[in-house]
Amino acid sequence: MLDAGRTQGLLKARGRQRTDSTHVLAAVREPNRLELLGETLRAALNALAAMAPAWLRSVALPVWYERYSRRIEDFRLPKTPAERAALADEIGDDGFRLLAALDGPESPPGVATMPAVEVLRTVWRCHFEKTPDPADPSGNGRARLRPVSGRGGEDRLESPYDTDARYCSKSGMEWTGYMVHLSETCDDDAPRLIVHADTTAANVHEAMRTEPIHVALAAKGIAPALHLVDSAYVSAAHLVTAREVFAIDLVGPPRKNLSWQQRQGGGFRAADFRIDWEASRAICPRDKQSQSWRDYRDRSGSPYVKVRFNPADCRACEARAQCTRATGVKWGRNLRLRPRDEHEALAVARARKETDSEQPLYALRQGVEGTLSQAVRSFGLRRARYKGIAKAHLQHVAVAAALNLDRIAAWLRGRPLAPTRRSRFAALAA
């Protein structure tokens, strides 16, 4: 579809594009914790029964055939929390027993690294720990559920039948599955075509996809000159990389300044200090110069500058309450600055957001939400039809191609864009 758009002169590089994302529900049932544990072990047993039936028959306990012969949700699970915890511990012991046999010398070649077995290892590592048991002569201990401490962790699996799907909580909404990022053109003299579909696990933040999207657009030869996004895609590093590496003007509201000076109003923010990068010094709003300037790196290896002011100057300053809450004779105002290019890029972006002439650009970005709505309502974008991120991405590419086909046909026929729909009740306000 993109090649056809180029041939017809409907798609050009170095124009305007916009990007946004929406959530996608995985094509699997979301089990509770007990069901997840039982189904994970059952899936591993089924895979082993096909791969090494004779070996599995020799290690399986008689109770396993009763406990894991059917889907866990088909059984009547215990009602009390204590009984559920006891059943979970029994399932944990069964899983550890199977893993120990798989790692033993009599295990058939290749079965210990089967995908279903790797899933079993991952789930058991996340949900169980072993505790000493005096009644166990082998000294291996008993399985015990780990305390529930959120749903984080990169390897936290939500279903043994879709190991790519992940849990996410965003803006009061929770789901298990994926995220899809759609990028479309938004030039006035051409149809609005989707130029890239990017599919990730649900727990991958939008900020992690800004640069990969630019790389993909550049590889297709259709990188924009102006890229409109929301605040989730914008950081100081993104602004610099987009400009210097891809020659893209990344436009979006930068993340809010959460310092107490900003929230209080009237406080001296870091932006109120004059920075002399050549002389490696900062000057406060009361014209006092910094005492020290040092380069550091944070835990991720990103560089930053730490600027300290003379505590004596800060103690004597009449505006101290507007600047710092530090106490003690050795404490004055400190600044933490990004590298110069990032610091200046962020300052420009924040100033740009307040400029009246730039507001139409921010309004233009919101138009991509109509594309997401059309993809969801007309093509079922929000529900994965298949399991696994590869097939989910193929579905998203197909949806994007279908949207483009419809939009090219509308453009050639002269069909105008539909206006924003309003409910009858909302129309009464006008």
Automatic annotation (TrEMBL):
Chain segments carrying region Disordered: 130-161
InterPro entries on file: Tnp_DDE_dom (IPR025668)
Ranges of compositional bias, category Basic and acidic residues: 152-161
Residues covered by the Transposase DDE domain: 283-408
Name of protein: Transposase
Source organism of this protein record: Azospirillum lipoferum
